[in-house]
Amino acid sequence: MGDNTGNNSSRYTQRKAFFERMLTVYGRKPVLEALLDPALTCHALHLADSNRETGPVRDILRAAEQRGIPVHRHNRAELARISHNGRQDQGVAADILCPGFRQLADYLAAPPTASRQRLLALDGITNPQNMGMIIRSAAAGAIDGILCSRRGNAALGPLVIKASAGTLYRAPLLHCDTLPSALADCRKAGFEVCTLRADAPLSLFEHRPRGHCIYVLGNETEGVSEAVQAQADQGLAIPMNNGVESLNVAVTASLIAFGAYFER
Amino acid sequence: MGDNTGNNSSRYTQRKAFFERMLTVYGRKPVLEALLDPALTCHALHLADSNRETGPVRDILRAAEQRGIPVHRHNRAELARISHNGRQDQGVAADILCPGFRQLADYLAAPPTASRQRLLALDGITNPQNMGMIIRSAAAGAIDGILCSRRGNAALGPLVIKASAGTLYRAPLLHCDTLPSALADCRKAGFEVCTLRADAPLSLFEHRPRGHCIYVLGNETEGVSEAVQAQADQGLAIPMNNGVESLNVAVTASLIAFGAYFER
To answer: Looking at beta carbons, which residues of chain B come within 8 Å of A100?
Structure first.
């Protein structure tokens, strides 16, 4: 009985970890591109039975067949529940394995100790173009995790995937429910929390993290929210010449992501 | 006689410098925004006589009147010659003074000696969004000049102005005719020429310029052209994690523009 419970619990944990690493991508072009990328693992292809299986849908089916990916057929309503976007899924969705996706809680349960961790947190990045560019730069740079709440940021859909140049699938994404409580958990785990703010007295380029550090980027117009600011140890500003008042948020993300290389 | 020639020559030089600092912006929204920005100097407003002087055009006229800016009326063909874009000028253009615009030759004739100069050169940046973001980051960061040939890059029009968040008017732009010969001139003046290339053995983050340095960004797809590569002292790469193969060119520009702060 105890063994059974243990097995069930372990199986549950495995299933949970499996689903947390899964991104359901939708739309004909993103799905076909994902199926044709040999570096990606695709677990299932979902098709609406309303599709005419010609042209692009035939290409998608052929790619799935060549890679031995199971194909599931659904009615439109079922497919919309899978894609979470019935308006834009074009009757096609695919479950892609993203090895770098985790829950923040799992990451914090066994945080890496070998190196000082640098996380990037997104507090209301609503423009998919910015979201994708941030993810691309963070994945390329020295960022150990991109902390992202399920709501409040641009949805991880086709626009973000395109703007990320497909790097979303490879990004170290840490999911959380709400950012303020996630930041509180990070602080308990010893992380320094820094928000990027134009009016902060300390420069990003002068700041040296004393240990694990998390950098928070605010909304493109409103900046960092009050609830998030309440969790911050300090604000950091980026000095600017020629009367320029702000940088694109994806540029700010890049300076943080690659700043570690300059500091060495 | 000798004096007269001297005066004429000096007047010519002044007029030339005047026109080199002038950017003719077109389109109703960009022109109105420029007229409403108190930090900008506008020399003239140009209107096509085909405009109905109501709505947006009335707002533009009112803004020009309040600032005492001369208004010139033209027929459509004349206005198209002024805007260089009859299809998109919407019958409106304005001459804006950009104090940071210069000819490369004038800059090299009396190069600043107080500090190590850092220039950014653009070799075929064709996407206006990228062009604007590069200009915004370069103007904000530690870049002394953005070297830009008249052809081969996205035109400095409304799309670039918008993507630059209006910072184009404040940017230190160095005009040249063709980039390869401009880079040859820079080398003669003692500049080190570095091209950004994914396959370069040396990392941008390990490179320390030995003096004045110019960093060349290539086309979004093709990279740096052969004629430009022939002028380069060396290539620099940006190391990337998670299998990411490239960065957005505006992100690369930002890492160069702000790299100087990290190096200090």
So the answer is: 242
Interchain CB distance below 8 Å, B137 and A263: no
* Residue B116 to residue B210: CA distance in whole angstroms: 9
pLDDT of the residue at A3: 47
Query: To the nearest whole angstrom, how far is the Cα of B81 from the nearest Cα of chain A?
Result: 31
- Residue A253: name the closest of A139, A85, A160, A165 by CA: A139
* pLDDT value at B215 more than 80: yes
Contact B137, A251 (CB under 8 A): yes
- Supply the pLDDT for residue B114: 79
DSSP state of A90: T
Domains defined along chain A, listed by start: 22-97 (3.30.1330.30), 102-263 (3.40.1280.10)
Model confidence at B1, in pLDDT bands (50, 70, 90)? Answer: very low
CA distance B57 to B35: 12
- pLDDT tier for residue B10 given thresholds of 50, 70 and 90: confident
Nearest to A259 among B142, B165, B262 (CB): B262
**Are B140 and A167 an interchain contact pair (Cβ–Cβ within 8 Å)?**
no
Confidence of residue A11 (pLDDT cuts 50, 70, 90): confident
Query: Are A220 and A103 contacting, i.e. CB atoms less than 8 angstroms apart?
Result: no
The answer to whether residues A240 and A247 touch, using CB atoms and an 8 Å cutoff, is yes
pLDDT digits (tens, 9 = 90+) for A171-194: 999 999 999 999 999 999 999 999
Angle at B255 between CA B254 and CA B259, to 5 degrees: 115
- The more confident residue out of B249 and A261 is B249
- B171, B238, B259 ranked by CB distance to A242: nearest: B171
Chain A residues touching B264 at Cβ < 8 A: 205
Q: Are the Cβ atoms of A262 and B263 closer than 8 angstroms?
A: yes
CB contact under 8 A, A243 and B39: yes
Nearby residues of B228 by Cβ (< 8 Å), 6 or more positions away: B121, B123, B179, B180, B183, B195, B216, B218
Residue B148: strand, helix, or coil: strand
Mutate to test the interface with A, among B169, B258, B264 (most CBs of A within 10 A): B258
What's the pLDDT score for residue B2?
Answer: 43
Across the interface, whether the CB atoms of B140 and A250 are under 8 A apart is answered no
Which of B242, B247, B129, B218 lies closest to A127 in space, CA to CA?
B129
For B96-138, how does the pLDDT look when each residue is reduced to its tens digit (9 = 90+)? 999 999 999 999 998 787 789 999 999 999 999 999 999 999 9
Which of A258, A263, A264 is the best substitution to test chain B (most B C-beta atoms within 10 A)? A258
* Inter-residue contact B80 to B27 (CB < 8 Å): no
